[in-house]
């Protein structure tokens, strides 16, 4: 089996789990934040929705500058509803999947760099970036969302097995 095929299966699994988790959040909770230094749920959700888009960028470009010289730092439009969040996740997930489907395993070995103002912050293979900055990053923030949902008294969906809420 190709590495790409393994990554596609993982992407599908993690996007489905993320969709299920986001589906438990309620519109009225988007302004809620668990702590003054934490993002509110709209900010956390919007950040999670961008991660699959970064996966597409990783496979389509040799680098990405998070603060290009002379350019504005992109500011994402915050989600205003869970329905919008699910639609954006589906669209960005489909684009990430298409980008992964179109590459070959050897493309994953090519270097990819993250820059800020033209300065290289890090360089890794596309495979390392996909696993670390894309997949693990999405899983990390989904974990944060699960804690927030618990604090909001919302039932958690199954992710890697049944949740305590689904066993009850």
Topology:
Layout: H1 3-22, H2 41-60, E1 63-65, H3 82-102, E2 111-116, E3 119-125, H4 126-151, H5 164-167
Parallel strand pairs: 1-2
Antiparallel strand pairs: 2-3
Helix pairs in contact: 1-3, 1-4, 2-3, 2-4
CATH topology: the name is Four Helix Bundle (Hemerythrin (Met), subunit A)
The averaged pLDDT comes out at: 95
Major beta sheet, strand line-up: 1-2-3
Assigned CATH architecture: Up-down Bundle
Walk me through the structure:
This protein is mainly α and 168 residues long. The chain has a single domain (3-167), classed as dinb family like domain (Four Helix Bundle (Hemerythrin (Met), subunit A), Up-down Bundle), CATH 1.20.120.450. It is 54% helix and 10% strand. The protein is built from 5 helices and 3 strands. The chain has helices spanning 3-22, 41-60, 82-102, 126-151, 164-167, and strands spanning 63-65, 111-116, 119-125. The chain has a 3-stranded mixed β-sheet. A hairpin with a 2-residue loop joins strand 2 and strand 3. Helix 1 (3-22) runs antiparallel to helix 3. The longest helix has 26 residues, at 126-151. It is globular and about 45 Å long.
Short description:
This protein has 168 residues and is mostly helical. It has a single domain, classed as Four Helix Bundle (Hemerythrin (Met), subunit A), CATH 1.20.120.450.
